[in-house]
Amino acid sequence: MRRSALVDLAALEANLLSALEADPDLILDARADAYGHGVGPIIRTALATGVGTVRVSPGQSVLPGIRRSALMTVPSKRRLLGAEAYGVDGSGIPVLTLVGEVIAVKPVGADAGVSYGYTYRTPAPTTLALVALGYADGVPRLASNRASVAIGGEPLPLVGRIAMDQFVVDCGDRHPSVGDDAVLFGRNAPSALDWAAHTERSALDLTAGIGSRVERVYS
Amino acid sequence: MTAPRIEIDLAAFRHNVATLSSLVAPSRTMLAVKANAYGHGLVPLAFAALESGADSLAVLEIPAALELRRAGITAPLFAWLHGPGADFAAAVDAGIDLGVSATWQVEAIAAAAHSVPARIHLKVDTGLHRNGANPEDWPALVDAALAAERAGRVEISALWSHLADASPEDDAAALTLFQESVAVAAARGCTPPLLHLAASSAGIRMPAARLGLVRFGIAAYGISPFDDETARDLGLRPVMSVRAPVAAVDGGVASLSIGSADGIPAPAAGRAQAWVAGSRHPIVEIGIDSLSLDVAGSTVAVGDEVVLFGSGDDGEPTAEEWADWADTIGDEIVARASERLPRVYRG
């Protein structure tokens, strides 16, 4: 199955440049593996963009190819730039886009129960798409029956309980194909902030929780 | 002082697998080790399952099955979630049993099976509405599989489905639909030797659904599949514990170097508790890589080991309690446990 976190380093650079203009002394917050974005590529991009200091989690203070003096593991009085750098503050460009794969598509009638506990029943005949991402991948189960997912560029409701490895999208009168992308949040998709609200955590908590089955793809 | 870590009690796991497999015998036990064995670690749990009553393993997808083959596991392995890019040829070469939900999969598997026939398990959707053929598409799936079998490309090893655990009535209706689908297949000449339907909950509470084998998952990891009985009630023992030393104590607040990025669910802050020095203390804040515990009035000191969740034997919280605090199920608590922290295997 394709499970991808597309990480747009040019978006990071643009977000950092506008923040550095206001405060050249800022510290980039790259704790928790740069909140799931991947600490190596994120820090290399940040240092090349003019960031002087990066905060990392304890245990990530020695990174190959990155000068140790640029890294800190303790709080400081200088401004710590987090959500804005990763484009999950509501105004910056989203750096991470989480993409799953549609692996089954099926027509169902009205009143079809969906997923465990049948917490959703189709209000009318519709098409359901099965997406191969689940809570083991960091898609919080709390998003069940709350969040939206973009398939074919269209935000569509995630319905029924999210399972460990898969969830279902109610596509209405749309007919996606097996192999199509299902974009949870990021570029051309619902916002990580919406997902954060649905899952009672911060957007950076959400990206930090993306699991290792999801391949990070840098561009 | 030991660092934050995840301890896996293999003795507890073996006890659970033995308990569950005895419960359902003579039905056989397939143990689900998908998602890195629910966060516990794929290879060690796979070997432990096969040592204690399971005779096959369910892995979700082909790459995990291949990893188990590389680790030396020769037992039957079952993979059933496939995208269009699935490497069916590698699966057939490695002798992996493949779950099949759609005719495109039968065709792709038949095309990939050059050396030996691929063993396939045909899945019908009995109401969960995830994968599995819709009942109206079932005859066509069976016919496509029979044609591939006649051509020597596949061997239809089983018919199967998965239950929604919505209510006993819904599961009984799904069992009836499954039996009707088995009859439809038989009328077309498809009578494989194996039928399977139940996972943990029906395996425990619905003997009629046990059939040829039960695919046990969460119960084997010592977490109840029910909301009205705990694992302890069921005679099962939690397998995972998450532990971290107190890194600092300041003004009655102890801090730990473990946080939400390690899978400690942020929504549980304010409700959750952790266990240290013989008693429970409230967790007041869950940060991204840190956590604070109210230890006012206690003798908790730097270096003391905190158990976030564990067996419950000494009063520690369990993953089931964390699930309540985070408004989820224990499956998510363990499956999300830190991939960064080392697993330490005991027993």
Automatic annotation (TrEMBL), chain B:
Co-factor(s): pyridoxal 5'-phosphate
InterPro entries on file: Ala_racemase, Ala_racemase/Decarboxylase_C, Ala_racemase_C, Ala_racemase_N, Ala_racemase_pyridoxalP-BS, PLP-binding_barrel
PROSITE patterns: ALANINE_RACEMASE
Domain of life from the UniProt record: Bacteria
Keywords: Isomerase, Pyridoxal phosphate
Domain named Alanine racemase C-terminal: residues: 239-346
CDD domains: PLPDE_III_AR (cd00430)
Cross-referenced PANTHER family: ALANINE RACEMASE, ALANINE RACEMASE, CATABOLIC-RELATED
Protein name: Alanine racemase
